[in-house]
Amino acid sequence: MAHNELSMGGLTPRDHAFYGLVWAGTTLTARVDQALVRRHDLPLSWFEVMLWLNAQREPVAPSELGARTLLSRSQVSRVADSLQARGLVERVPSPTDARSVRIALTGAGRRAFAEADATRREALAEAFDDRLDDADIAALQSIWSKLKSPGGS
Q1: pTM of the full predicted structure?
Q2: Packed helices 44-54 and 73-85: angle between N→C axes, nearest 10 degrees
């Protein structure tokens, strides 16, 4: 059976840029997720919640995590349940609302995050460290900022 060369056809440069972003996001996400699961039994969605929690000095409401992550509030709650079952996060009562809880990393969670973050950096090293220089990284940061700005969405 003959193999045909696949083509994206007559896409514009903007179309190619869009699909390039989609490809890069999908490919790099899969690479990181596979490395985290293989080494730490920690899916990327769990790591993302831990990433945000690690940067906070105080426990965080699940709704705040849902607003910042790529996860919904219900997904954040399920991830928090899984992380709590492993002793990586704890739920604490909200100081302002007795009906609410907040989530924080435990000491074990901070250690697990540090190990997983090293794995994430290692998984991305080929793409970011070996192929991109500082000017490329600065350009990506500039593009990301423009796309995330209120006028860019």
Answers
A1: 0.83
A2: 90
Structure-token match 């500082």, residue found: 134
Q: CB 9: neighbour CB atoms within 10 A?
A: 6
Tokens standing for 14?
Answer: 């903007």
The amino acid sitting at 112 is A
User: Over the stretch 22-52, which tens digit does the pLDDT of each residue have?
Assistant: 999 999 999 999 999 999 999 999 999 999 9
> What is the chain's Cα-based Rg?
19
Q: Where are the alpha helices (DSSP H) in the chain?
A: 13-40, 44-54, 62-68, 73-85, 107-125, 134-148
Gap between the Cα atoms of 41 and 27, Å rounded: 19
CB-neighbour burial class of residue 39 (10 A; exposed 0-12, middle 13-18, buried 19+): middle
